C-alpha cells in the first residue's frame, strides 16, 4: 500500500504541468463559462420560465455534448497523457526496476488517470452550480434560486464517470504498449466512431462496446415514468451500460497488468 501511495503521489508531481492535468480542470470551466455567457446574452428571452427549466437549459447543452462526443475523446486523451510522460522521458525500465512492486506502479498510474476523470466530472457539477447561481444573482428573473439541481447534476456526471471506465482501461493499455501518439489515439478514435455508428444503427449488441457506453448512458439517463411529479427529475445511474463498463474496466485492468508483465515495455 505504501508503494501505491508513493507512486500515486509521484504521478501528481510528474503530471501537474502537463496538458492532460490542466485539461481535466479547464475543460469543464471553459465549456460551462461559454454556456453561461450565451445564457446571459439571451437572458431577456429566457426570463419567466420555472427555475427547473432554467437549470435544465443551462446544464443540458454541456451534458449532451459530453455524452455524445467529448467524454470518450477526453478519456482517450487522459489515458495517453498519463503514460506519455514515461514514454517521452524513456523511464519505463527505470520505473519498473524501482524497489516498488510492479503492481503498485501499474495500478497507481491507472488510478491517477481515473482520478483525473473523476475530478473533471465533479468540476462540471461545481462549475454548473456556481455559474447557475451567479446568473440567478445577476438576473433574478431567471429563477435559478428557486430550484436546486446539485444532487441531479452529481448523479448525471457520476454516471458519465462510471460509463467511461471501460474506455479508460482499454486506452490505458493501448497507450502503455504503444509509445507513439497515432496508434493509441487513432485506434481509440476509430473504435469510438464505430461504436457511435453501432448505437445510431441500433445494433443489438452495441452495449458490449466500451466506447459506446457514454452515449448509451446519456440515452438511458432519464427514465420515462408517468407517475413522477412535473418538478422532479430522476436519474437512473446504474443501468446495463454502466454495469458492463465496470466489468470491462475490471477485466482489462487486470489483464493489462499481465500483458505488460509478459512483454518488455520500451
Walk me through this protein's architecture:
With 266 residues, the protein is an all-alpha fold. The chain has one domain (1-222, 229-262). The chain contains eleven helices and no strands. The protein has helices at residues 2-15, 19-41, 43-46, 51-89, 92-96, 102-138, 150-163, 165-177, 182-200, 213-219, 240-262. It is globular. This is ABC-2 type transport system permease protein. It comes from Mucilaginibacter auburnensis. Keywords: Membrane, Transmembrane, Transmembrane helix. The chain crosses the membrane at residues 21-41, 61-82, 103-131, 151-174, 181-199, 242-260.
Tell me the fraction of residues in β-strands, as a range.
under 5%
- The end-to-end distance, rounded to whole angstroms, is 26 Å
Radius of gyration: 20 Å
- How many domains, in number, for the residues? 1
Number of strands: 0
Low-confidence stretches: none
- Specify the biggest β-sheet: none
Mean pLDDT: 86
The residue fraction in helices comes out at over 70%
The succession of helices and strands, N to C, reads: HHHHHHHHHHH
Overall shape: it is globular
Helical element count? 11
The structure class reads mainly alpha
Summarize the structure.
With 266 residues, the chain is mostly helical.
Mind sketching the topology for me?
Blueprint: H1 2-15, H2 19-41, H3 43-46, H4 51-89, H5 92-96, H6 102-138, H7 150-163, H8 165-177, H9 182-200, H10 213-219, H11 240-262
Which descriptors apply to this entry?
266 residues; membrane; mainly alpha; 0% strand; single chain; transmembrane helix; ABC-2 type transport system permease protein; transmembrane
Amino acid at each position: 500500500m505504501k508503494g501505491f501511495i508513493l507512486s500515486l503521489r509521484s504521478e501528481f508531481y510528474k503530471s501537474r504541468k502537463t496538458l492532460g492535468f490542466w485539461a481535466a480542470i479547464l475543460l469543464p470551466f471553459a465549456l460551462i463559462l461559454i454556456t453561461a455567457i450565451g445564457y446571459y446574452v439571451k437572458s431577456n428571452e429566457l426570463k419567466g420560465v420555472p427555475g427547473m427549466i432554467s437549470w435544465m437549459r443551462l446544464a443540458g447543452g454541456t451534458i449532451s455534448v459530453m455524452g455524445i462526443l467529448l467524454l470518450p475523446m477526453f478519456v482517450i486523451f487522459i489515458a495517453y497523457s498519463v503514460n506519455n510522460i514515461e514514454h517521452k522521458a524513456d523511464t519505463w525500465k527505470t520505473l519498473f526496476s524501482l524497489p516498488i512492486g510492479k503492481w503498485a506502479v501499474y495500478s497507481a498510474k491507472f488510478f491517477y488517470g481515473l482520478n483525473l476523470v473523476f475530478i473533471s466530472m465533479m468540476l462540471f457539477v461545481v462549475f454548473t452550480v456556481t455559474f447557475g447561481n451567479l446568473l440567478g444573482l445577476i438576473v433574478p428573473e431567471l429563477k435559478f434560486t428557486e430550484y436546486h439541481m446539485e444532487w441531479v447534476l452529481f448523479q448525471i456526471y457520476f454516471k458519465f464517470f462510471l460509463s467511461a471506465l471501460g474506455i479508460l482501461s482499454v486506452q490505458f493499455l493501448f497507450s502503455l504498449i504503444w509509445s507513439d501518439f497515432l496508434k493509441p489515439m487513432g485506434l481509440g478514435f476509430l473504435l469510438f466512431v464505430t461504436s457511435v455508428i453501432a448505437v445510431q444503427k441500433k445494433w443489438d449488441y452495441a452495449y458490449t462496446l466500451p466506447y459506446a457506453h457514454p452515449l448509451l448512458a446519456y440515452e438511458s439517463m432519464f427514465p420515462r415514468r408517468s407517475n413522477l411529479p412535473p418538478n422532479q427529475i430522476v436519474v437512473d445511474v446504474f443501468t446495463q451500460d454502466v454495469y458492463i463498463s465496470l466489468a470491462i474496466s475490471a477485466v482489462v485492468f487486470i489483464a493489462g497488468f499481465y500483458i505488460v508483465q509478459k512483454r518488455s515495455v520500451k
